[in-house]
Amino acid sequence: MNATAYPNGEFGGGTDRKLVVGGINSTVAIQSLYFGFYILLMSGALFLVLNAGTAAGHAEDREAGSPLIQLVSVLMAGPGLLLCFMRLDTSMRALGRAWPYLLVLVYSLLSLLWSVEPDVSFRRFTALLLGLPVAVYLITAVPFPRLLRIMGITALVLVAASYLSAAIPGVGLQTGDRHVGALKGIFPSKTYSGIFFGVSMLLFIANMAQVKADKRKWLFWMISVSAGLVALIASNSRTPLLAFFVSLGFVYLIGFLVKPTGWQRRFALSLRWFITIGTLFFITVVMPVMISIVMYLINRDLTLTGRLRLWKYAVEIGADRPWFGAGFKSFWTDKLTLDILVLHQHWGERNTTRAMTSNAHNGYLDVWLELGFIGLGLFVIFWISFLVRSVAAYREGHSSGYWALLLWSFMTIYYIGNSTVFQHLDFSWFSVVLAFLLVSNYKNDWPAKLNKARSDASITVGEALGPQREAAAASLAQ
Known about the structure:
Layout: E1 3-6, E2 18-21, E3 24-25, H1 26-43, H2 47-50, H3 67-86, H4 88-96, H5 99-110, H6 118-141, H7 144-165, H8 190-210, H9 215-234, H10 238-258, H11 269-297, H12 307-318, H13 334-337, H14 340-347, H15 363-395, H16 399-417, H17 427-440, H18 446-477
Antiparallel strand pairs: 1-2, 2-3
Helix pairs in contact: 1-3, 1-7, 3-4, 3-6, 4-6, 5-15, 6-17, 7-8, 7-9, 8-9, 8-10, 8-16, 10-11, 10-16, 12-14, 12-15, 15-16, 15-17, 16-17
């Protein structure tokens, strides 16, 4: 095995030269392994092991965390935190541009003052905060194409593992409830697998856009999209499936509006706006009404699998704290929502479930329940700024904008029927934070600046040591 020290690695050279072993840059390998394991932790695939077999959806203490998961989380987030402190100025500047998200975090921290369960709020807020330095490190040190590739390959490995797990009795397929036979793969339940498969397909599509000039790589990611789609359908997760197709259509409409190509340029801007708004109105208003009418005519459940009962139950309790909420991640705790029979009455449909839910199955409702109207307003500001910045990055040709738009539209739909908002150790929410940081900093290519700084340092050191090297070479020649 050959090992060579290159003065100018992928990030540049300088005082921390990159060791290339067998043609593989050690920095790239370490970053890939670290982030790959971090995605594995956030995906939920380790929950069954770390929680000693406790799966999501069982009636359990919704307040107590797992000490083992907490320890692993700290150990995994530790390197990212350390690396951010080593480049504190760059990290703070990158964070400063993401001020809408920071406002939400600050208000969430303040909510501990009136939280119904301050200990629970503090623990969960701390857990959420642990992922932020990892995201900051990634956007400031790893070029986006490589970052996207690492995420895509790791997600593909987990999708493939989920297929293999289906062949193991009692492991890969859902058992014991009305979703028997649904593909949950290596995840605790189909809820985890569904959202993971959906977000993974967005990564595969974004990688396709990155390599569209290379047919072989494009075909590889196209096959990955197909594998993810089949897995999502097999998981019987309808909300992520709907969100996936809506996200594709939404990004197409945005492209039609701000980056028309070919025949699209024949339409005036005003006409493109009219077509875009009309299409969005049809999708968000007309189609839901039509679907409701059809479901009524064929005598199907109109309560969204019991969600309307759950929402009514939650709103009745949340109305006692409309402006400030119950406190960060403290609404769905035993102090407010203990009675499982009451939950069963409103959440279950004909005795099909006795799940002690830990969220409202609606992200926007959960934000209001936990942070009140003030927190919901701050979240809306953050969410709109996410869209505006994603469109700006996409219009100016930065590749992160395309992925961010896919993710924004996907999660906007997903949060109507499910909730991972502010969820620590969650791949979808971490992806949201990562994408927001990327589009907030797309004009500042931090990895490129880091590369230039290290290259300049390498040149300076080389010039300083030049005379010494020449003298040493002369003495060796004698």
